[in-house]
């Protein structure tokens, strides 16, 4: 018996087989992987991933879905279910507890909290090998946007400073029950190696990026005046009259470092 999707949880259950197979193929799970699925729902991705890897940890907030997942998984593999809000899950601690260096994470994310989940995962990027997520297409477009694009912004900068962002393919509304009102996309995120990561203070970097994009039409000199004056911005080799949408992610790292010095 199919579960009734709950609007309060932003549930849209993927059901079309060809897209399920494409996602599983993109993840390409192996027997040595420690997989974590965010929001398994009815198990459309859970069971094929579990069959390929032999074990999987699923994070599910909706208690009504858990019994069906447990009973169906019994003959497939080792399924551990964590009943929790994913934003409270410590992925770094999970990797340590399981005795693995890095997790592989997948999921059809609730669209209304997708950005907080992405930022939460980025906070644990050192413990994550890769992520494969289904998201609203507009969000994936912003994640992968380049400087100068109308959709380039805070999400683009913060994710690209932590991960390689690879949009994979789009998924139409009809592939879900109930159909969402937007198109969806599958994206792969691969955390950068330790030597490729930025060395700016993360709190300061976040503050600079947030302020820079708070009012996109403002110049950096005006947008950042609470954090940096024009001379400090110039010390980062950036024109104070430039706008945030024209800067590459690495430019924000330099601004964050100058902000610490000021």
UniProtKB/TrEMBL annotation:
PANTHER family assigned to the protein according to its UniProt record, in alphabetical order: DIMETHYLADENOSINE TRANSFERASE, DIMETHYLADENOSINE TRANSFERASE-RELATED
Catalytic function, reaction form: adenosine(1518)/adenosine(1519) in 16S rRNA + 4 S-adenosyl-L-methionine = N(6)-dimethyladenosine(1518)/N(6)-dimethyladenosine(1519) in 16S rRNA + 4 S-adenosyl-L-homocysteine + 4 H(+)
Gene that encodes it: rsmA
Main location: cytoplasm
Role this protein plays: Specifically dimethylates two adjacent adenosines (A1518 and A1519) in the loop of a conserved hairpin near the 3'-end of 16S rRNA in the 30S particle. May play a critical role in biogenesis of 30S subunits.
Record: residues binding S-adenosyl-L-methionine: 12, 14, 39, 60, 85, 108
Family under the similarity heading: Belongs to the class I-like SAM-binding methyltransferase superfamily. rRNA adenine N(6)-methyltransferase family. RsmA subfamily.
Key word Membrane present: no
Biological source species: Dyella jejuensis
Any one GO molecular-function label of the UniProt entry: 16S rRNA (adenine(1518)-N(6)/adenine(1519)-N(6))-dimethyltransferase activity
Protein name: Ribosomal RNA small subunit methyltransferase A
E.C. number(s) listed in UniProt: 2.1.1.182
InterPro entries, per database record: KsgA/Erm, rRNA_Ade_diMease-like_C, rRNA_Ade_Mease_Trfase_CS, rRNA_Ade_methylase_Trfase_N, rRNA_adenine_dimethylase, SAM-dependent_MTases_sf
Keywords: Cytoplasm, Methyltransferase, RNA-binding, rRNA processing, S-adenosyl-L-methionine, Transferase
Top EC group: transferase
């Amino acid at each position: 018996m199919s579960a009734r999707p709950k609007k309060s949880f932003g549930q849209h259950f993927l059901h079309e087989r060809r897209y399920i197979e494409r996602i599983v193929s993109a993840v390409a799970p192996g027997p040595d992987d420690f997989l974590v699925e965010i929001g398994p729902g009815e198990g459309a991705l859970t069971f094929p991933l579990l069959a390929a890897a032999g074990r999987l940890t699923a994070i599910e907030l909706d208690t009504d879905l858990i019994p069906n997942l447990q009973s169906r998984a019994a003959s497939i593999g080792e399924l551990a279910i964590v009943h929790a809000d994913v934003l409270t899950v410590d992925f770094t601690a999970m990797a340590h507890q399981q005795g693995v260096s890095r997790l592989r994470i997948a999921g059809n994310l609730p669209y209304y909290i997708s950005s907080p989940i992405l930022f939460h995962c980025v906070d644990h990027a050192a413990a994550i090998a890769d992520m494969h997520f289904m998201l609203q297409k507009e969000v994936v477009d912003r994640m992968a946007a380049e400087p100068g694009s109308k959709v380039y912004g805070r999400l683009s900068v913060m994710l690209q400073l932590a991960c390689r962002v690879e949009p994979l393919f789009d998924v139409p509304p009809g592939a879900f029950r109930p159909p969402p009102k937007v198109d969806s996309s599958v994206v792969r995120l691969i955390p950068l190696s330790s030597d490729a990561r930025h060395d700016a203070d993360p709190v300061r970097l976040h503050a600079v990026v947030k302020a820079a994009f708070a009012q996109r039409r403002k110049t950096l000199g005006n947008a950042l005046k609470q954090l940096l004056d024009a001379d400090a911005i110039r010390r980062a080799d950036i024109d104070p009259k430039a706008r945030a949408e024209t800067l590459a992610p690495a430019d924000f790292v330099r601004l964050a470092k100058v902000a610490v010095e000021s």
